[in-house]
Write a structure and sequence with these properties.
Number of helices: 11
CATH superfamily of the largest domain: Histidine kinase-like ATPase, C-terminal domain
Distance between the termini: 108 Å
Shape: elongated
CATH architecture of the largest domain: 2-Layer Sandwich
CATH class of the largest domain: Alpha Beta
Strand content: 5-15%
Length: 396
Amino acid sequence: MGCRIPVRAVTLAGTTMLSAVGWAEAVRHDPLGSFVTFVGLALGTVAVALALRRLLRKARSLRLQLLVITLGALGLAAVAAMLLARLMVFDAAEARTVVGVLGVTAIFASGLVIVASAPLGHDVRRLESTVRAIEAGDRSVRAGIERSDELGHVAKALDELTTRLELLERERESYEAERTAMLSSIGHDLRTPLAAMRAALEALVDGVAPDPDRYLRSMQHDIAALTDLVDDLFLLARIEAGRLELVRAPVDLTELADEAIEALTPVAERHGVSLGLDATGSVSVLGNPVAVGRVIRNLIDNAVRHAPTGSSVRVAISNDGIPTVRVVDEGPGFPPGFVEHAFDRFTRADASRGRSTGGAGLGLAIARGLVESLGGRIWIESPPGGRVAFELPRAS
C-alpha cells in the first residue's frame, strides 16, 4: 500500500480542514490517480444531476424534489470522501468518520428541508387550485401568493391574467346584452312600418281601401321612417368605426338653431308643444353645418317627444366662454339611472315607448358622435326638466 502521506491541518471554529499542502502532496504522490479520481467525481456529479433531472420531472411534490436533491448532494459527498480515502488524503478511520457525519447530516438536512419547504408546498397547491378554479370558469379567484422568487412572479402574473379575463368576460357579457338589445330594437323598429305597409298594400290590392290616396301617403311615411332608420344606422356605424370625416368651417350656431326650429315646428305642433330660441346674436363656432344642424334637430326632436302637451321647448345659446347650446323642455327630465346610459345606442328613457313616441334610441348616440367628432362635448344637466347641452370650439 505504501506509506501514508502526512496531512497538515488547520482548525477554524472547531472544524478541522485539510491544508493545501496535504492536497498538493497527495496529487504529487499519485498524479494519475488524482486526475482519474477528480474526473470521475466530475463525471459522476454530472451523471447524477442528469439522472435526477429526468427522475424529478415525474415527482408530484416540490418538497420531495428538494429532499432528493439534498440527499443526492450528501451522497456525492460520501462517495467523494471514500475516493479521497483511497488517495490517502484521508485514512480509513477518518473516511468512516466523514461518512458518519454525512449520514447524521442527512437526517437533520431532511428534517430541515421538510420543515422549511412546507410554505413552498402550500403555495404550489394554492396555485394549482387557483388554476383549476379558473379552468372551471371562476374569474373571481386569486392566488394571492406573496413571494419574491419565481413562484411568486408566476402567481402575480396569474392573478393579473385572471383580472384581465374577468374584465374581458364582463365586456363580453355587456356586448352580448347590447347586441341582443340592438337586434330587438332594430327588429321592433323594422317590424312596425313593414307591418303597416303590408296591411295598406293588401288593402289596395284587394280593393277594400276606402281612401287609396291616404293609404299611399301612409306607405310613403313608413318608407321614409325605414329610410331614416337605415341612414341613422349607417351614420352611427361610421361614427363608431372612426370613419366619419367632417370638414370644419366657421358656422353660426344661432342660424343653425333657427333653421332647426323652423323645420321641426310642424312636428312640435302635432305634439302640442311650442318651440323657442333664446340667443343674443350670432355665435360663431368651428364645426360642420350639416353635422351641427343634425345635432340640434336630434336634441329638439328628443325634447319634443318627452315634453308634456301645452308646454314649450327652448333652445338657449350662450356665448360666455365656450359657445354652448342648451335644449330645455318642461318634462320630468331624465330618470337618474338613465343619465349615464342616455348617449348609448338603442336606449330609451321609457323602454315601453315605440318608434312613434320614443324613436329608435339613436338620436342622442348620433348627437354625441357628431359633437365629439367636431372636438366638442355633450352632456345632460341636472333637473328641473330635461336639459341637454353641448359645446363646440369657438371659431378664430
